[in-house]
């Protein structure tokens, strides 16, 4: 059975849309609003501090390190792990048994590997979010999905404060046709009696390595 | 073994009948009361954090109105971007057409099963039932949808469809049913949510890894770039969207947003409104086919990333009818957050099943009758399933004035029935007759006050005679007074009468 041609449906739907939009009558939208309440965001918190606080709120681990200490921080994060899958273009040393992405034809073959390390594209302080665009160092999407531990390296320069700023930063990735995965803590569900439970299908542990800015660790960055 | 067992809402009783039964279910009320109170608290906390929440609500409403006002243009733009990015776009006027497309795609891949990400749109079109009839298993992978499916049940909430089940029931369902359709639940399964989630993880893992075809919905579709978005918590979305070779995404035509940057405000509005989080655990965004070219790393051949055969089914199924109603069309702004359900006093007491509809709660009461038409008893009763308290409007992230649309629909239902006798119509006619002449009103008042004197020791009347009996079925009326105001005034202010003019 071949897939039906839907051009007739397409024409009819567009015709119906146009007819609907020329329907008579006017409607004036309501303009009142509930009184606004004061915001609770500490305006003065430095970006990276806010990011760390918000990521930890999701029960993910965050470790900060200097730019020359990334390799040892990665090793520490993978201390109890037997095997790790490493994306193409990932530039740091990974200890222990390593599976390189280039040797993986079908992503499902990595089932059983304990951990994955990736870099990221942008991070959002306000919401404690990390975004991957699956470019070099980040791996195909399945790579950061199947293992139970995801170690993610975020550079302080990659952190923006708000969601709209993140969208601006991600536009080049989208225009290049890259898929995006937004990660805010480990996988979770509240479906049973609203009791939040970590770890259903994605990595049950998220370990974030925040790399300080080079030459001047601990400096508060001016907000953009 | 068929995996698709969830039913549809065909033949459900109308709201007042269903509600009466539901309010007597104390366990349901306890579950719901706890659930909705918890989510309300979480939502309030994260909304308070946002400095300009009201401005964002307005922005969301304006963007959605812009999409609706130019829907044909945006749909064409979306189609063009999707095709450029390697996706195949299909259009479906109704549920039957949409289902036929999905079945045809699955058959073309010789698939006997599909894995599904939770999607209200696919529920609306009855996709699982259609796939089952075509001999294709449809495995729900969202934990709550899995619970509903294994329990041969109906969802009762947009966001947490299994909220009417407590942990002991979930354990029972898993133990009884998992083994029938795949890996059985462990023998020592307890009812702790963490253990139940783990059982689901193991049960579904094998299905994710072997599935050839996945079906999803989309929370948003960006017209400017052709990007689709799935917002989730558990990771089942990521599994379905990236592991199988073929992906079919069913999208209602109202789910568009104009540009990439416009999507930002919705990614702020949705998580805070739905689960009361600053951001949900996982959001996947993809534009057509990803060739994973970044991973080729100098080796020969490009290694692909995710499904290489991507389909998008754009579905009308009544949305253009809603669009044609200038008052009702604001319902199409809905981003399916379920904030309105969680604040609704009616929903909290009766739950989702009482609405007899895929979309329950306040949004369901205005969307259902508009999408499906007002012929059925359920659809006619839904606009009345409300006290018009307005909490839903305050909570709605895109400012849908649900009470306004409810009243608008009520007038339509009344107009539909004009000319046909009804108890309410008769009562109104009797009232109009009585008020038309002073002498008639006086006679009626005399009768009432006589009754009042006879009922002197009663302050409330539980039951009124027909045709008011329908009204008094769930309300008490005050007993009539023993004298009218006019009579009382004349009796007690006789002196004023005399003093006039002096």
pLDDT < 50 stretches of chain B? 1-6, 294-301
Q: How many helices of chain A in DSSP terms?
A: 4
Arithmetic mean pLDDT of chain A: 90
Number of strands of chain A: 12
Structural commentary:
- The complex is a heterodimer of chains A (224) and B (502).
- Chain A is an alpha/beta fold and 224 residues long.
- Helices cover 21% and strands 21% of the residues of chain A.
- In chain A, the strands form 3 sheets. In chain A, strands 1-12-7-4-2-3 form a 6-stranded parallel beta sheet, sandwiched between helices. In chain A, strands 8-5-6-9 form a 4-stranded mixed beta sheet, with helices on both faces. A two-stranded antiparallel ribbon of chain A has the order 10-11.
- In chain A, a hairpin with a 4-residue loop joins strand 5 (122-124) and strand 6.
- The radius of gyration of chain A is 22 Å and the shape is globular.
- Chain B has 502 residues and is α/β, with parallel strands linked by helices.
- Chain B contains 24 helices and 12 strands.
- Chain B has helices at 15-23, 26-49, 53-69, 71-84, 95-108, 120-124, 127-133, 143-150, 167-181, 193-210, 236-242, 263-274, 319-323, 339-343, 345-350, 361-372, 377-381, 391-395, 402-416, 423-435, 438-454, 469-472, 485-492, 494-499, and strands at 88-92, 113-116, 137-140, 213-216, 220-222, 227-232, 246-252, 256-257, 282-286, 309-315, 460-461, 477-478.
- Chain B has a 6-stranded parallel beta sheet, with helices on both faces. Chain B has a 4-stranded mixed beta sheet with strand order 8-5-6-9.
- In chain B, helix 9 runs parallel beside helix 10 and helix 16 (361-372) packs across helix 19 (402-416).
- The longest helix of chain B has 24 residues, at 26-49.
- Chain B is elongated and about 100 Å long.
- In chain B, 52% of the residues are buried.
- Mean pLDDT of chain B is 90; it is low at 1-6 and 294-301.
- Chains A and B meet through helix 1, helix 4, strand 9, strand 10 and strand 11 of A and helix 2, helix 3, helix 4, strand 1 and helix 5 of B.
